[in-house]
Amino acid sequence: MAKPDFLTIFLLLLVLNKSFSLAATAQGGESLISKACRKETDYPDLCISTLEANDVSKKAKSYESLCGAAMVVLKSQLEKAYLFVTESLAKQTNSTPSETNSKTKTQIQGCADGFQHAIRRINDGITAFDKKNYEDTYSKINTLIFESLDECKVKRLDMFQNLNDVTDAFANVVLSLLENLVPAFDKY
């Protein structure tokens, strides 16, 4: 009898893995991530793709743990955004001085400050979440969106437009998910 080659084994494992995955979803219905994102957020595709790309959120067993994981994902996004903006600031600082360069540098510094404030607020929000103080958590994320992230958006720097849009959209996803945990939340 011939030995199976690597490709045959790989394809067999791939089919088996897909079968087990489909069976698990069929038994439990729609995944927690998919259900929460489709029901609670205005950006379900962004929510699903972002959270399914994260191992911690994929392993979430409850809505509450999914919200906690979403906050950690947002924190990671904010830290990456801050790093990108500060690297851009360093490049601007090292370039030839000019009046335009000075104005741009000031605008980039404002963006960096905004992301730094957002990181502080997400850390405060995670601390409140860990204490099950969901109202305070919601308040911190709301402030993060409407104050900290706006610090960069109002600078209107094209180089950060996509970064701002995606970060803001996912922060709104997290805020929407948290609404479900706040007792007697009044949306109006």
UniProtKB/TrEMBL annotation:
* Chain ranges of the Pectinesterase inhibitor domain: 31-145
What keywords tag this UniProt record? Signal
Q: Which InterPro entries match?
A: Invertase/methylesterase_inhib, Pectinesterase_inhib_dom, PME_Inhibitor
Name one matching Pfam family: PMEI
Q: Where is the signal peptide?
A: 1-23
**GO molecular function terms attached to this record:** enzyme inhibitor activity
Protein family membership:
Belongs to the PMEI family.
Record-linked NCBIfam families:
PME_inhib
- Protein name per Swiss-Prot or TrEMBL: Pectinesterase inhibitor
Native species:
Corchorus olitorius
